[in-house]
Specification:
Length: about 280
Protein backbone atom coordinates (compact mmCIF):
# COMPACT_ATOMS: atom_id res chain seq x y z
CA UNK A 1 0.00 0.00 0.00
CA UNK A 2 1.43 3.40 -1.00
CA UNK A 3 1.72 5.79 1.96
CA UNK A 4 -0.49 8.86 1.80
CA UNK A 5 1.04 12.21 0.89
CA UNK A 6 1.09 14.24 4.09
CA UNK A 7 1.70 17.86 5.03
CA UNK A 8 2.51 18.64 8.65
CA UNK A 9 1.76 22.18 9.82
CA UNK A 10 3.71 23.01 12.97
CA UNK A 11 7.25 21.68 13.35
CA UNK A 12 7.49 21.53 17.12
CA UNK A 13 7.77 18.37 19.21
CA UNK A 14 4.59 16.66 18.02
CA UNK A 15 4.91 17.72 14.38
CA UNK A 16 8.50 16.51 14.14
CA UNK A 17 7.67 13.27 15.95
CA UNK A 18 4.83 12.56 13.53
CA UNK A 19 7.03 13.36 10.53
CA UNK A 20 9.77 11.02 11.78
CA UNK A 21 7.26 8.24 12.48
CA UNK A 22 5.70 8.53 9.02
CA UNK A 23 9.12 8.42 7.39
CA UNK A 24 10.16 5.36 9.44
CA UNK A 25 7.33 3.23 8.08
CA UNK A 26 7.98 0.57 5.45
CA UNK A 27 7.74 2.42 2.13
CA UNK A 28 7.73 5.60 4.19
CA UNK A 29 8.63 8.90 2.59
CA UNK A 30 9.25 12.38 3.96
CA UNK A 31 6.18 14.45 4.68
CA UNK A 32 6.01 18.03 3.53
CA UNK A 33 6.21 20.58 6.34
CA UNK A 34 5.35 24.14 7.27
CA UNK A 35 5.91 26.31 10.32
CA UNK A 36 5.33 30.06 10.64
CA UNK A 37 8.80 30.35 12.20
CA UNK A 38 11.45 30.41 9.41
CA UNK A 39 14.09 29.08 11.83
CA UNK A 40 11.92 26.05 12.61
CA UNK A 41 11.40 25.43 8.89
CA UNK A 42 15.14 25.63 8.16
CA UNK A 43 16.06 23.37 11.10
CA UNK A 44 13.53 20.70 10.07
CA UNK A 45 14.71 20.78 6.46
CA UNK A 46 18.42 20.59 7.38
CA UNK A 47 17.72 17.65 9.70
CA UNK A 48 15.88 15.82 6.93
CA UNK A 49 12.71 15.63 9.02
CA UNK A 50 10.45 16.98 6.27
CA UNK A 51 10.83 17.56 2.56
CA UNK A 52 9.80 19.85 0.99
CA UNK A 53 9.25 22.76 3.37
CA UNK A 54 6.56 25.25 2.39
CA UNK A 55 7.14 28.97 2.70
CA UNK A 56 3.42 29.64 3.11
CA UNK A 57 0.16 27.77 3.68
CA UNK A 58 -1.08 28.98 0.33
CA UNK A 59 1.43 26.71 -1.42
CA UNK A 60 -0.08 23.31 -0.56
CA UNK A 61 0.59 20.74 -3.28
CA UNK A 62 -2.67 19.51 -4.89
CA UNK A 63 -1.48 15.91 -4.43
CA UNK A 64 -1.45 16.17 -0.61
CA UNK A 65 -4.00 13.77 0.92
CA UNK A 66 -3.74 14.53 4.65
CA UNK A 67 -2.85 17.83 6.31
CA UNK A 68 -1.99 17.37 9.99
CA UNK A 69 -1.96 20.40 12.29
CA UNK A 70 0.46 20.25 15.22
CA UNK A 71 0.16 23.83 16.43
CA UNK A 72 -0.57 25.23 19.92
CA UNK A 73 -4.29 24.81 20.74
CA UNK A 74 -4.88 28.57 20.86
CA UNK A 75 -3.60 28.86 17.28
CA UNK A 76 -5.55 25.92 15.87
CA UNK A 77 -8.80 27.72 14.89
CA UNK A 78 -7.05 30.50 12.95
CA UNK A 79 -4.71 27.99 11.29
CA UNK A 80 -7.67 25.85 10.24
CA UNK A 81 -9.22 28.88 8.56
CA UNK A 82 -6.00 29.53 6.63
CA UNK A 83 -5.49 25.92 5.60
CA UNK A 84 -9.12 25.51 4.52
CA UNK A 85 -8.68 28.14 1.81
CA UNK A 86 -5.90 26.11 0.16
CA UNK A 87 -6.90 22.55 1.09
CA UNK A 88 -6.90 20.25 -1.95
CA UNK A 89 -10.37 19.04 -2.94
CA UNK A 90 -9.84 15.43 -1.83
CA UNK A 91 -7.60 16.13 1.15
CA UNK A 92 -8.47 15.60 4.81
CA UNK A 93 -7.51 18.02 7.56
CA UNK A 94 -6.72 16.62 10.99
CA UNK A 95 -5.78 18.55 14.13
CA UNK A 96 -3.70 17.24 17.05
CA UNK A 97 -4.95 19.84 19.55
CA UNK A 98 -5.99 18.34 22.92
CA UNK A 99 -9.24 20.33 22.90
CA UNK A 100 -11.52 19.47 19.99
CA UNK A 101 -14.62 21.67 19.99
CA UNK A 102 -12.95 25.01 19.08
CA UNK A 103 -11.30 23.34 16.09
CA UNK A 104 -14.55 21.63 15.08
CA UNK A 105 -16.27 25.01 15.16
CA UNK A 106 -13.49 26.55 13.04
CA UNK A 107 -13.76 23.73 10.48
CA UNK A 108 -17.51 24.23 10.33
CA UNK A 109 -17.14 27.98 9.73
CA UNK A 110 -14.61 27.25 6.99
CA UNK A 111 -16.99 24.82 5.26
CA UNK A 112 -14.73 21.76 5.56
CA UNK A 113 -16.34 19.95 8.49
CA UNK A 114 -17.02 16.85 6.36
CA UNK A 115 -13.25 16.60 5.74
CA UNK A 116 -12.06 17.47 9.23
CA UNK A 117 -10.96 14.95 11.88
CA UNK A 118 -9.83 16.11 15.34
CA UNK A 119 -7.21 13.73 16.68
CA UNK A 120 -5.78 13.95 20.20
CA UNK A 121 -2.72 11.67 20.63
CA UNK A 122 -1.93 10.62 24.19
CA UNK A 123 1.66 9.27 24.20
CA UNK A 124 2.29 6.17 26.28
CA UNK A 125 5.42 7.86 27.69
CA UNK A 126 5.94 11.28 29.28
CA UNK A 127 9.16 11.69 27.30
CA UNK A 128 9.33 15.29 26.05
CA UNK A 129 11.94 14.82 23.34
CA UNK A 130 10.62 14.43 19.79
CA UNK A 131 11.23 11.12 18.05
CA UNK A 132 9.74 8.51 15.74
CA UNK A 133 8.75 6.36 18.75
CA UNK A 134 6.82 9.11 20.57
CA UNK A 135 3.44 7.93 19.30
CA UNK A 136 4.16 4.18 19.23
CA UNK A 137 1.62 2.60 21.55
CA UNK A 138 -0.12 5.93 22.06
CA UNK A 139 -3.89 6.17 22.29
CA UNK A 140 -5.22 8.55 19.66
CA UNK A 141 -8.72 9.84 20.31
CA UNK A 142 -10.47 10.70 17.06
CA UNK A 143 -13.49 12.98 17.06
CA UNK A 144 -14.91 11.17 14.06
CA UNK A 145 -16.25 7.76 13.13
CA UNK A 146 -13.52 5.31 12.12
CA UNK A 147 -15.74 2.93 10.12
CA UNK A 148 -14.64 2.35 6.50
CA UNK A 149 -15.63 5.28 4.34
CA UNK A 150 -15.58 8.41 6.52
CA UNK A 151 -12.43 10.58 6.63
CA UNK A 152 -11.85 9.31 10.16
CA UNK A 153 -10.99 5.89 8.74
CA UNK A 154 -8.16 7.35 6.66
CA UNK A 155 -6.78 9.28 9.61
CA UNK A 156 -7.09 6.18 11.82
CA UNK A 157 -5.15 4.19 9.22
CA UNK A 158 -2.36 6.77 9.28
CA UNK A 159 -2.04 6.50 13.06
CA UNK A 160 -2.25 2.70 12.98
CA UNK A 161 0.57 2.62 10.43
CA UNK A 162 2.96 4.22 12.95
CA UNK A 163 1.98 1.94 15.82
CA UNK A 164 -0.61 4.12 17.54
CA UNK A 165 -4.01 2.95 18.75
CA UNK A 166 -6.86 5.10 17.39
CA UNK A 167 -10.31 5.12 18.99
CA UNK A 168 -13.42 7.16 18.22
CA UNK A 169 -14.96 9.55 20.77
CA UNK A 170 -17.50 12.36 20.41
CA UNK A 171 -15.73 15.77 20.60
CA UNK A 172 -18.13 17.03 23.28
CA UNK A 173 -17.42 14.03 25.51
CA UNK A 174 -13.71 14.23 24.79
CA UNK A 175 -13.41 17.86 25.88
CA UNK A 176 -15.44 17.22 29.03
CA UNK A 177 -13.15 14.31 29.96
CA UNK A 178 -10.04 16.35 29.14
CA UNK A 179 -11.27 19.10 31.46
CA UNK A 180 -11.79 16.57 34.25
CA UNK A 181 -8.54 14.64 33.82
CA UNK A 182 -6.09 17.34 32.74
CA UNK A 183 -7.25 20.89 33.43
CA UNK A 184 -9.08 20.22 36.70
CA UNK A 185 -6.04 18.61 38.42
CA UNK A 186 -3.95 21.65 37.47
CA UNK A 187 -6.45 24.11 38.93
CA UNK A 188 -7.21 22.03 42.02
CA UNK A 189 -3.49 21.63 42.76
CA UNK A 190 -3.03 25.38 42.28
CA UNK A 191 -5.86 25.99 44.76
CA UNK A 192 -4.19 23.66 47.29
CA UNK A 193 -0.83 25.42 46.90
CA UNK A 194 -2.47 28.83 47.27
CA UNK A 195 -4.18 27.56 50.44
CA UNK A 196 -0.85 26.36 51.85
CA UNK A 197 0.74 29.67 50.87
CA UNK A 198 -1.50 31.49 53.36
CA UNK A 199 0.56 30.15 56.25
CA UNK A 200 3.90 30.92 54.56
CA UNK A 201 6.92 29.82 56.58
CA UNK A 202 4.76 27.92 59.06
CA UNK A 203 3.75 25.53 56.28
CA UNK A 204 7.43 24.97 55.46
CA UNK A 205 8.06 23.82 59.04
CA UNK A 206 5.86 20.78 58.47
CA UNK A 207 6.57 20.32 54.76
CA UNK A 208 9.56 17.94 55.27
CA UNK A 209 7.38 15.50 57.22
CA UNK A 210 4.71 15.63 54.52
CA UNK A 211 7.04 15.90 51.54
CA UNK A 212 5.87 12.78 49.69
CA UNK A 213 2.20 13.64 50.18
CA UNK A 214 2.63 17.27 49.17
CA UNK A 215 4.79 16.35 46.18
CA UNK A 216 2.11 14.07 44.76
CA UNK A 217 -0.81 16.37 45.57
CA UNK A 218 0.78 19.54 44.19
CA UNK A 219 2.67 18.15 41.17
CA UNK A 220 0.01 19.28 38.64
CA UNK A 221 0.51 22.87 39.81
CA UNK A 222 4.16 22.67 38.74
CA UNK A 223 3.11 21.66 35.22
CA UNK A 224 1.16 24.84 34.76
CA UNK A 225 -0.97 25.69 31.77
CA UNK A 226 -1.38 28.98 29.98
CA UNK A 227 -4.52 30.90 30.77
CA UNK A 228 -5.28 30.90 27.04
CA UNK A 229 -5.13 27.10 26.92
CA UNK A 230 -7.42 26.79 29.93
CA UNK A 231 -9.79 29.41 28.53
CA UNK A 232 -10.43 27.59 25.26
CA UNK A 233 -11.90 24.68 27.21
CA UNK A 234 -13.78 26.88 29.70
CA UNK A 235 -17.23 25.64 28.59
CA UNK A 236 -16.27 22.17 29.84
CA UNK A 237 -13.87 23.21 32.61
CA UNK A 238 -16.33 25.42 34.48
CA UNK A 239 -18.82 22.54 35.04
CA UNK A 240 -15.88 20.35 36.12
CA UNK A 241 -14.94 22.95 38.74
CA UNK A 242 -18.53 23.01 39.96
CA UNK A 243 -18.39 19.23 40.43
CA UNK A 244 -15.16 19.58 42.43
CA UNK A 245 -16.67 22.32 44.57
CA UNK A 246 -19.69 20.11 45.24
CA UNK A 247 -17.45 17.26 46.42
CA UNK A 248 -15.46 19.61 48.68
CA UNK A 249 -18.69 20.88 50.23
CA UNK A 250 -19.85 17.30 50.78
CA UNK A 251 -16.59 16.39 52.54
CA UNK A 252 -16.77 19.55 54.66
CA UNK A 253 -20.36 18.76 55.66
CA UNK A 254 -19.45 15.16 56.52
CA UNK A 255 -16.53 16.36 58.64
CA UNK A 256 -18.75 18.85 60.48
CA UNK A 257 -21.38 16.17 61.14
CA UNK A 258 -18.72 13.84 62.61
CA UNK A 259 -20.69 10.82 61.46
CA UNK A 260 -19.93 7.73 59.35
CA UNK A 261 -20.30 9.54 55.99
CA UNK A 262 -16.75 10.93 55.99
CA UNK A 263 -15.19 7.47 56.23
CA UNK A 264 -17.51 6.26 53.48
CA UNK A 265 -16.60 9.13 51.15
CA UNK A 266 -12.88 8.65 51.72
CA UNK A 267 -13.20 4.90 51.16
CA UNK A 268 -15.05 5.48 47.88
CA UNK A 269 -12.26 7.83 46.78
CA UNK A 270 -9.55 5.30 47.64
CA UNK A 271 -11.31 2.50 45.78
CA UNK A 272 -11.87 4.51 42.61
CA UNK A 273 -8.29 5.80 42.64
CA UNK A 274 -7.07 2.20 42.56
CA UNK A 275 -9.24 1.60 39.47
CA UNK A 276 -8.16 4.87 37.88
CA UNK A 277 -4.38 4.53 38.10
CA UNK A 278 -3.88 0.77 37.88
Amino acid sequence: MTPERTLIVGLGRDGISLALALRARPQGAPAAGYDPDPAARDAALRAGVVDPVLDSLEAIDPSVEIVALAVPPVRAPETIARVAAALPREAILTDLAPVMLPSVAAASRAGILSRFVPAHPVPASDEDAPGAARFRGASVLLGSATDPGPPGARVAAMWTSIGALPASVAPTLHDALFALTHDLPILSAAALVRTLRRTGSLTRLLAPASRALLTDATRPASLGSSTETLAINAPKLLPALELLEREVRRLRHALAENGPELASLLDEARQFREELVR
